[in-house]
């Protein structure tokens, strides 16, 4: 009964006063059904509005759509974009192989070829070719890298 039909969502003049419509908790169209689905207590609703996080929890992602409204809470101090559930697309979950390839690429960007430390940040490999400590002796914060495996030395 409080289910808005499509027209309610589409006919909102989003750019009326340059602001997005704002909804408080449970006020956005379909919010109750969305929250139930997020908690696994109900089916994913066919329509309504949901935040990116809520979409993800339902196995969806916004796709290419732009947000249509804002969800606000804590008196408007916190807010999140709201997206249309009916335009959301199934979330792409990377395959294990893709994740491993990504991880390898990240590792290559963060591993110094000279000292073999793996840093928690990317290294200026393209310009310096090594970490700063190897380059000019700037001591690296031990908390910023993982020491290279030592089994080679122990063997
Ligand atoms: Zn190094």
Question: How would you describe this structure in keywords?
Answer:
single chain, 155 residues, alpha+beta, 4-stranded mixed sheet, 6 helices, 8 strands, elongated, disordered N terminus, binds zinc ion
Give an account of the 3D structure:
The chain has 155 residues and is α+β, with helices and mostly antiparallel strands. It contains 6 helices and 8 strands. It has 2 domains: 85 residues, no CATH class; 59 residues, no CATH class. The strands form 3 sheets. A 4-stranded mixed sheet has the order 1-4-5-2. A two-stranded antiparallel sheet has the order 3-6. It has a two-stranded antiparallel ribbon with strand order 7-8. A hairpin with a 4-residue loop joins strand 4 and strand 5. The longest helix is centred in the middle third of the chain and has 15 residues. The termini are far apart. The site of zinc ion (ZN) has 8 residues, from helix 5.
């Amino acid at each position: 009964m409080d289910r808005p039909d499509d027209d309610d969502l589409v006919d909102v003049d989003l750019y009326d006063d340059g602001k997005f419509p704002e909804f408080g908790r449970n006020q956005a169209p379909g919010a109750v059904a969305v929250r139930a689905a997020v908690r696994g207590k109900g089916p994913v609703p066919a329509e309504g509005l949901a935040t990116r996080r809520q979409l993800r929890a339902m196995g969806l992602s916004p796709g290419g759509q732009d947000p249509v409204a804002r969800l606000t809470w804590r008196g408007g101090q916190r807010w999140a974009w709201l997206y249309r559930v009916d335009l959301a697309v199934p979330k792409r979950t990377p395959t294990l192989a893709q994740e491993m390839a990504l991880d390898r690429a990240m590792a290559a960007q963060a591993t110094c070829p000279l000292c073999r430390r793996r840093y928690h940040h990317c290294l200026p490999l393209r310009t310096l070719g090594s970490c700063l400590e190897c380059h000019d002796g700037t001591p690296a914060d031990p908390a910023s890298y993982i020491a290279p495996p030592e089994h080679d030395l122990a063997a």
